[in-house]
Design the sequence.
C-alpha cells in the first residue's frame, strides 16, 4: 500500500448569502471585443458585453435589456431577454451608419429575478466605413522622378494647410490615415498621442483609418492643420518598398453642428503644402532616426508661420477603390511605461553606457547637455560584451540608432517618433564632455499595442516568477501593432508560426482579443484562393512564401483559441470560413489522410542534433519528420473546424470534420508509429511523440505506449528538452497530462541547458530565440540568428496559469463562462505557493494555493455570472459547504457559483484504490 494524500476537500468559507439585496450596477460596458466608448468604430452591427459588480455569492444574471439611442430616439430596444448571456450579445437594430453616434445602456435581472437600475450610458461612434465617405485625396511628393534614399530612410515630410472659420464648431472630427506612419497637429497641438498609426496591414487591400475628436482645438479665425509622415512599414526598408517608395497622407476634417450636420469639410487636396526639409532627416523602422535641430521648422504647425513659403505644392492621387479604407479595429500603439536606467558606465573615450535593467522595446528620451553642431549618438544593444561595450552583431543590418545634432549649446530634449528599438543598453556619445554623465540623462519609453493587462502569476519560486515576467516582456516587446518574431534585428515580421504558438498565453497576459481579430483579418486577406497562408503576415515582399507546417495553420488555430478564451461567437462566425478554407488546402493535397510540406521550417531550432540529417528547410529545422508535423497540423485543423462547427450549430459539418479528424488520426497512428507506439519515421525525436499526443491523435492504448517511448527518449536526452519552436510549445503539458508529471516538472524546473531557467541564470529579462543565445561560459551564439526578445518559447506561460496556479478557460463554456480550476496539488511540485488572477469578461477570477502543515489550502474567486468547475485528483471523502464533488475516474469535480471559496486538502494515508 502506497501512502497517499487523502482527500479532504473542505469548503471552509464562502461569502454570506445576502439574497435580499438589490442588484448592484453594471460596469465596463464594452462593444465587440470589450472596447469601451470607442470613437471611429469599425462595426455597423456591434455586439455588447458588460460586467456585473455584484459580490454576492452566486451572483448571476437571469435576464437583461439593452437600449440603444441615437439622436435622442430609441434606435433599438432588445426588450427583456431571459438569458444569462452577458458577453457578445449581437445588436439587433438596423445597421449603424458611418459617423453615427449612439448611446447604449443595459439593465439586468439577478438570480432572484430582481431588476437592477439602468447602467450609465456607454457611447459608440462609427468611423468612415466606406471609401465613398472620403472626400479627401492622397497627398504626397511628386512621384515622377522620385528616388528613395538608398541607404537608410527618407526624410520625414511635413504638411500644412491653413483655413479660416467664422465660428468654432460645436464638434469636429479628424479622420486620418497614411501610407507610412503619421502624426497630426491642430494649431500646434499634437492630436495623435499614439505611435505608428495607422498600423501594418496588407496595404494593397486594406489601410486602417483613425478618428480623433479635435473640436476643442479649433477657433474662430485662422486655423492650421499639420502632419508629419515617415516611411514606416509602407515605404521603409522593412518592406523592401514593395508597397510603394514614398509615404502619403490622407486626412479629412469635418466640422459638425449640434444636430450632427456636417457644416464644412476640409480634406487633403492640392491646397496643402509640404516640406522635406525638416529636422528628421531620416526615419526608418530598422535603421532609426536622425534629428537635426538646426533644421527645425519652428512654428510650422501654427498660424503666422514665417517661412510658409518654403513649403512646396503637393501632388494629389485619388483613393483607390480596390483598397479598403477601414477604421482600425483595435488599440493603437502607445507608450505604456517609462523606465529609468539602473546604472551607467563611463568609458575613458567619453562614451557612456546606460543599463535600463530590462530588455524593452520603444524609444529613448534624452535630456542632456550638448554642444552646438556636435552630434549626439544613441546606440542601442540588448546585451553587452565582456568589456562592457555594446553587443550589436545580432541586429544584423538594422542600423538601430538615433542621432541628434543640436542647434545650440545647453540642455537638449529629444525622443524619437518614427522608429523603434529593441534594447536594454544605450550608449551615449557626443554630449557636452564638460558635464558629468548622470542617470537622469536618458529614459526608456516602452511601446506596444495598448491592450489592458489581464493576467498575473506569482509563486514561491523566484526563477519561475522571473520566467513569467520574461514571457510578459516578450509579449510587450513583440505585440507592436502586429505579432512580431523579434523587435530588434532586420526582421520584426509577423511570422505566423510564432504567433499561433503564443496566442493562448498572450490572451492570459493581456486582453489581446481585438489585436488578434485584426491580425486574423489580415491573414484572411493574404490567404491564397487554395487556402495557402504566407509564413509571414503581413507578407510584404514574401507574398509567395507559404505553408510551412505549423505556420500557416495559424489560420485555424488562432480563431479557435480566441473563441475558447474570449467566448466570442461572432469572432468564430467571422473566421470560420477561413478555418475551413485552410483545412481544405490540406484536404485537397492529402493522400490517404496524410500531407507533407517538405520545405517547412520543421521543429525550428531544435537545440541538439541526434546526428541525422535535418528534415525541412535547412539545418535549423530539426530532425522531426515534416510529414509527421504537417499531418498533425492537418488533424488539428479538422479537430478545430469540427469544434467550431459544433459551436456554430452546423451539425453536419461538425460530424464531417470529426470523421476527418479520426481518419487523419488513424493514418498518423499507423504511418508514424509501430504497434508498440514507437515513432518510426526518420529520427525518434521528442516532438515526434509530443505533437501527436498533444493533438490527441493516438488512441488510448497507443498513446500509453507512445508515452513510454517519449519517457525513455527524454531519459536518453538526459531528462532535458530537445524540442524546437513546435515541440517546446507542447512538451510540458503533454508529459504532465499523460502521466509523466515528474519528467514534466523536471524539464520545467531544471536550470541545465537547454531549459527555460537556464537562460534566466544567464541573465535573461525576456525570452530568447535560443536557449543559449548567450552563456556566461561561452559568450554569444551565432550573430546571424540571436534575438534576445523572441517570445515563442514563452508558450510555457499557459502551463503556469493553467496547471501550476490552476486557472483555465473551460472548453464546456468558452470565454470563462465556466472557469476551470485544476491546479497540480502534488508533492512533486517544487512550490509552496502559487497564485494567478485573470480579468475575464465576467470580472476578476483568481486561484491561489499554499502548502500547509497537513496539505494544501486553496482560495478560489469566481466572478459574478460565471461558474467555477473545480477538478482535483482526490476523492471527495469529506466535502462540505455547498460544493458537491462527484468522482469520475481519478478526478473529483464540483461546480461552484460566483463568490470566494476556500478549500482545504488534508493529507491522510489512504489506499490508492480509493482514487480509482
Ligand atoms: C524568425 C522566426 C521564424 C523563423 C521561421 C526566423 O528568422 O525569427 O521566429 O519563425 O524565422 O523559420
Sequence:
Amino acid at each position: 500500500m502506497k501512502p497517499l494524500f487523502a482527500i479532504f476537500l473542505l469548503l471552509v468559507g464562502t461569502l454570506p448569502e445576502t439574497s435580499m439585496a438589490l442588484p448592484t450596477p453594471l460596469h465596463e460596458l464594452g462593444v465587440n471585443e470589450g472596447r469601451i466608448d470607442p470613437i471611429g468604430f469599425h462595426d455597423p452591427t456591434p455586439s455588447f458585453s458588460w460586467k456585473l459588480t455584484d459580490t454576492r455569492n452566486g451572483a448571476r444574471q437571469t435576464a437583461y435589456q439593452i437600449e440603444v439611442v441615437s439622436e435622442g430616439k430609441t434606435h433599438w430596444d432588445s426588450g427583456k431577454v431571459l438569458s444569462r448571456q452577458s458577453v457578445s450579445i449581437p445588436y439587433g437594430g438596423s445597421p449603424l451608419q458611418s459617423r453615427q453616434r449612439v448611446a447604449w445602456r443595459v439593465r439586468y435581472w439577478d438570480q432572484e429575478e430582481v431588476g437592477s437600475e439602468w447602467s450609465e450610458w456607454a457611447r459608440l461612434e462609427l468611423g468612415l466605413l466606406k471609401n465613398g465617405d472620403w472626400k479627401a485625396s492622397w497627398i504626397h511628393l511628386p512621384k515622377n522622378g522620385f528616388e528613395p534614399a538608398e541607404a537608410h530612410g527618407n526624410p520625414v515630410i511635413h504638411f500644412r494647410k491653413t483655413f479660416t472659420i467664422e465660428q468654432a464648431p460645436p464638434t469636429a472630427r479628424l479622420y486620418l490615415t497614411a501610407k507610412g506612419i503619421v502624426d497630426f497637429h491642430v494649431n500646434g497641438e499634437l492630436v495623435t498621442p499614439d505611435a505608428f498609426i495607422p498600423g501594418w496591414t496588407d496595404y494593397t487591400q486594406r489601410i486602417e483609418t483613425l478618428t480623433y475628436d479635435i473640436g476643442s482645438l479649433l477657433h474662430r479665425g485662422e486655423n492650421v492643420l499639420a502632419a508629419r509622415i515617415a516611411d514606416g512599414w509602407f515605404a521603409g526598408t522593412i518592406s523592401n518598398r514593395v508597397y510603394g517608395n514614398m509615404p502619403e497622407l490622407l486626412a479629412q476634417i469635418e466640422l459638425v453642428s449640434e444636430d450632427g450636420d456636417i457644416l464644412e469639410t476640409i480634406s487633403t487636396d492640392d491646397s496643402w503644402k509640404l516640406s522635406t526639409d525638416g529636422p528628421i532627416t531620416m526615419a526608418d523602422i530598422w535603421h532609426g532616426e536622425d534629428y537635426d535641430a538646426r533644421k527645425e521648422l519652428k512654428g510650422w504647425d501654427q498660424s503666422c508661420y514665417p517661412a510658409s513659403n518654403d513649403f512646396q505644392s503637393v501632388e494629389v492621387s485619388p483613393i483607390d477603390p480596390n483598397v479598403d479604407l477601414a477604421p482600425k479595429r483595435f488599440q493603437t500603439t502607445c507608450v505604456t511605461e517609462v523606465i529609468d536606467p539602473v546604472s551607467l558606465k563611463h568609458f575613458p573615450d567619453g562614451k557612456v553606457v546606460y543599463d535600463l535593467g530590462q530588455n524593452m522595446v520603444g524609444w529613448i528620451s534624452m535630456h542632456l547637455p550638448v554642444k552646438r553642431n556636435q552630434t549626439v549618438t544613441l546606440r542601442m544593444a540588448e546585451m553587452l560584451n565582456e568589456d562592457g561595450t555594446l553587443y550589436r552583431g545580432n541586429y544584423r543590418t538594422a542600423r538601430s540608432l538615433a542621432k541628434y545634432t543640436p542647434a545650440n549649446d545647453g540642455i537638449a530634449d529629444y525622443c524619437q517618433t518614427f522608429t523603434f528599438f529593441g534594447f536594454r543598453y544605450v550608449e551615449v556619445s557626443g554630449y557636452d564632455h564638460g558635464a558629468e554623465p548622470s542617470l537622469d540623462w536618458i529614459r526608456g519609453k516602452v511601446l506596444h499595442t495598448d491592450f489592458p493587462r489581464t493576467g498575473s502569476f506569482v509563486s514561491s519560486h523566484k526563477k519561475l516568477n522571473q520566467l513569467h515576467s520574461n514571457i510578459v516582456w516578450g509579449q510587450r516587446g513583440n505585440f507592436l501593432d502586429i505579432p512580431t518574431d523579434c523587435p530588434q534585428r532586420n526582421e520584426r515580421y509577423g511570422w505566423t508560426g510564432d504567433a499561433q504558438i503564443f496566442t493562448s498565453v498572450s490572451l492570459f497576459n493581456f486582453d489581446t482579443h481585438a489585436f488578434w481579430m485584426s491580425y486574423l483579418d489580415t491573414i484572411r486577406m493574404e490567404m491564397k484562393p487554395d487556402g495557402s497562408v504566407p509564413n509571414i503576415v503581413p507578407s510584404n515582399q514574401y507574398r509567395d512564401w507559404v505553408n510551412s507546417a505549423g505556420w500557416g495553420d495559424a489560420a485555424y488555430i488562432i480563431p479557435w483559441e480566441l473563441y475558447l478564451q474570449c467566448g466570442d461567437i461572432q469572432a468564430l462566425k467571422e473566421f470560420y470560413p477561413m478555418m475551413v478554407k485552410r483545412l481544405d488546402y490540406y484536404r485537397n493535397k492529402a493522400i490517404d489522410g496524410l500531407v507533407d510540406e517538405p520545405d517547412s521550417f520543421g521543429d525550428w531550432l531544435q537545440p541538439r542534433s541526434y546526428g541525422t540529417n535535418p528534415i525541412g528547410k535547412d539545418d535549423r529545422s530539426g530532425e522531426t519528420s515534416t510529414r509527421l508535423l504537417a499531418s498533425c497540423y492537418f488533424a488539428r485543423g479538422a479537430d478545430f473546424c469540427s469544434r467550431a462547427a459544433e459551436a456554430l450549430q452546423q451539425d453536419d459539418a461538425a460530424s464531417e470534420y470529426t470523421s476527418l479528424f479520426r481518419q487523419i488520426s488513424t493514418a498518423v497512428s499507423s504511418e508514424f508509429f509501430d504497434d508498440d507506439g514507437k515513432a518510426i519515421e526518420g529520427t525518434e525525436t521528442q516532438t515526434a511523440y509530443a505533437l501527436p499526443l498533444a493533438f490527441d491523435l493516438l488512441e488510448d492504448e497507443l498513446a500509453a505506449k507512445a508515452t513510454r517511448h517519449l519517457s525513455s527518449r527524454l531519459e536518453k536526452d538526459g531528462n532535458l528538452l530537445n524540442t524546437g519552436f513546435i515541440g517546446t510549445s507542447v512538451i510540458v503539458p503533454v508529459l504532465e497530462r499523460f502521466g509523466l508529471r515528474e519528467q514534466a516538472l523536471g524539464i520545467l524546473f531544471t536550470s541545465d541547458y537547454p531549459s527555460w531557467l537556464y537562460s534566466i541564470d544567464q541573465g535573461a529579462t525576456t525570452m530568447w530565440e535560443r536557449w543559449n543565445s548567450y552563456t556566461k561560459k561561452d559568450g554569444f551564439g551565432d550573430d546571424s540568428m540571436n534575438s534576445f526578445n523572441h517570445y515563442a518559447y514563452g508558450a510555457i506561460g499557459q502551463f503556469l496559469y493553467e496547471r501550476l496556479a490552476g486557472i483555465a478557460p473551460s472548453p464546456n463554456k468558452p470565454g470563462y463562462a465556466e472557469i476551470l480550476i485544476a491546479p497540480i496539488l502534488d508533492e512533486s511540485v517544487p512550490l509552496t505557493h502559487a497564485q494567478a488572477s485573470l480579468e475575464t469578461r465576467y470580472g476578476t477570477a483568481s486561484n491561489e494555493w499554499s502548502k500547509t502543515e497537513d496539505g494544501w489550502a486553496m482560495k478560489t474567486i469566481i466572478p459574478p455570472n460565471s461558474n467555477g468547475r473545480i477538478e482535483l485528483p482526490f476523492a471527495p471523502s469529506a466535502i462540505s459547504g455547498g460544493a458537491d464533488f462527484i468522482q469520475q475516474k481519478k478526478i473529483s469535480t464540483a461546480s461552484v457559483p460566483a463568490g470566494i471559496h476556500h478549500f482545504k486538502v488534508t493529507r491522510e494515508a489512504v489506499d490508492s484504490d480509493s482514487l480509482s
Remarks:
- The chain has a mean pLDDT of 94.
- The CA atoms of residues 821 and 870 lie 5 Å apart.
- The pocket of beta-D-glucopyranose is lined by residues 485-486, 491, 495, 497-498, 601, 604 (CB under 6 Å).
- The longest strand covers residues 352-370.
